[in-house]
## 1
Amino acid sequence: MNDRVSEPDVICPFCGSADTERESAFGSEISKMQYYCNGCNTVFEHIKFDGKQPDTG
């Protein structure tokens, strides 16, 4: 059984392709991930967000 949560499709902001793969878990900021687009061969950043509101105490 695979307990790993599948990542949502990340769309390239440059060409609109969904043929992307995660390049790095961290980008220029801790809240961003780097992705690589196989459609236009571009690296871009995507904001991390799991859909849950953070507990602010």
## 2
Amino acid sequence: MNVAVPGAVARYFEADARRDPDAIVALFTEDAVVTDEGRTRRGAEEIRAWREGAASQYQYTTELLGAEVADEDTVLVTGRLEGNFPGGTAVLKWRFALADGRIRQLEIAP
């Protein structure tokens, strides 16, 4: 990863690259919310189901293109995914809201 991001955000992308749902779920607060592909998941159980279901359907790599710390609790990341999903490449934006060093909200959008 060539883009500098705060601890929990860096660990999220590292765990994602390893396809490690346990490590990913551990990064979120108990009441965390994830919005991806128009669906919202709340809490550890739904976030785990997302990581083991929809988010694991395809093999892909993520190249981080840029990051911005919007304020002390919000990090915006832009990256490119390449893999065996329809279209083969996608540029996505991740908006992380942090609380006490953990992720309390994640929004993923094109």
## 3
Amino acid sequence: MSSIQTQQSVAGFVASDPQLSRTERGDARLYMKIGIEHYRREADNSFTKLETTFHDLIAFRAAAEYGHQKLAKGDNFIADGRVREYSYERDGQRHEGEEFVAARLGHDLARTRYDVDRSPRTSGVGQDSPARDSAAFTTPERASQPAAAAAAMGM
């Protein structure tokens, strides 16, 4: 049995207009400021809202292009990827920080209303790709069981 691979994730809201640029190699690069709301559970099971924190999020290539097309300031999102620490020097001063590098990025299903378009997706912006093989996701049929066997198993 293989183990479930995990990554870091972050959920929040888009706090600035997403900005799309290009790297030196020509890859798409998305930058946006994100906000994360924090809450504290109280003894009576109520929640107290704490100060919202703001962070940098970046994404590259297809995640950057689709993120720029689909996300707007104020949208609730979920992203998975990793936190990257960085440092640089400017005007003789050393600056340090961290940013979230998103490998996947999309709307938060629990906080966003939208319609799903299940037409075949393109592999790159404006390029066709093969449709998903839905047969790969079908549930195998189970042999029918006598009612007594089902009852014995607690069904």
